[in-house]
Amino acid sequence: MRSELSSLDVKILAHELNTLLEGARVRNVYQIGDHELKIKLFFPGEGNRDLIIASNYLCLSSYERSSPSAPTSYAMQLRKHLKGCFIRKVKQADFDRIIEFVFEGKQCFYLLVAELFGSGNIIFCDKDKKILGVLEWQKWQHRRIGVGELYHYPPAGINPLTLDRGGLDGLIEGSEKNVVSFLASDLNLGGLLGEELCLRAGIKKQRKISSLEASELDDLFKLIRGLGDLEGGPVLVSDDEGNPVAALPFSYRKYEGLRIKKTSSFNQAVDELFSNRDIGEIESRLDKQYEKKKEKLMHIKKTQEQTIKRLRKQEVDFRRSGDLIYQSMHELNKLLEMVDEARAKDYSWEEMNERLSGRVIGSLKILDVKKNGSIILDELK
């Protein structure tokens, strides 16, 4: 299953969200995972919907996700500043997997930056891009992500949608990469879209980019520049069992033969793909937690049943001993008198054991006299 969005996906998604989130007002903020936020938004005339920002995707979701009972410190910080604010703008940063949300309220202006690459991050900034809060502190050679720092974008990559033919030729010159690697990394298109362009151009993806003929480069260049205008609209791709495997801004030839469902927006396709996966993972995790807890409780139950069985046996034994003591009270008193007399004559416990062992007093037989003063008795049958 596809697990991330390409830079082109982010561009299309940001454009859609800029319209979908128009007039939305923040009701609350929750951190629902290590790298995932849920921002509950109110839309006039529509009600509440959730904006989900995760490490590798984001969307305005139609799926309900549970909220933690206790907010994290980061969620509380965002609530403090963003509750009541309106989302005024959503945009992509350059041609990168970064989406910025502009929030405005009474005498306030904030920027929330979602970085959808690597382990992901969500950075909260003021109007001057000074970082006020961050989901995860990060440091690279070229920038630092931490409270008090100024937010800087990562080094800008190539925007293939604005690249001219001369620029393409300059990038290819001296390159030893194969076609798909060149498209994925040098042109910032990602591997999946790189493969799709190779299919559409009829070029084997493992060929070296420098080996392409001028006519092949012409075809490839036209496809790259036309990415923003491809027809067909967004789709959700599912396997034969109906499990979503890819959300696409347009149909890919790679997925021909699978189930293709047209969606009203790319946001909807992303929502159905990732939300179903997330909810499935949550249910699986809950099932594992349930089974683990059940196993623990069954172990406790088994231990308690064994303890109850042992205590019931002890109860029978102790009751029988108690009845015997009561019935033999006269003999026991007589035995204690004998022990007191022997102690008064300074007999040792060894001597008393020699004198008393084997003697019968009523229905009791003396088996042993211990050095600690205890006397072992047996009931005569």
Give an overview in words:
It is a single chain. It is built from nine helices and 17 strands. It has 381 residues and is of the alpha+beta class. It is elongated. Helix content is 39%, strand content 24%. The mean pLDDT is 88. A hairpin with a 5-residue loop joins strand 16 (364-369) and strand 17 (375-379). The protein has three domains: 7-155, ibrinogen binding protein from staphylococcus aureus domain (ibrinogen binding protein from staphylococcus aureus fold, Roll); 165-267, Helicase, Ruva Protein, domain 3 (Orthogonal Bundle), CATH 1.10.8.50; 328-379, no CATH class. It has a five-stranded antiparallel β-sheet with strand order 5-6-7-8-9. A four-stranded antiparallel β-sheet has the order 1-2-3-4. It has helices at 7-20, 73-82, 165-172, 179-186, 191-201, 214-225, 266-327, 329-344, 349-356; strands spanning 25-33, 36-43, 47-53, 58-61, 86-92, 98-105, 108-115, 121-125, 131-134, 138-139, 144-145, 235-238, 244-248, 259-262, 360-361, 364-369, 375-379. Helix 4 crosses helix 5 (191-201) and helix 5 packs across helix 6.
Q: What is the average per-residue confidence, as pLDDT, rounded to a whole number? A: 88
Order the strands across the largest sheet as they lie in space: 5-6-7-8-9
CATH superfamily membership of the largest domain, which one? ibrinogen binding protein from staphylococcus aureus domain
Order of helices and strands: HEEEEHEEEEEEEHHHHEEEHHHEEE
Largest sheet: 5 strands, antiparallel
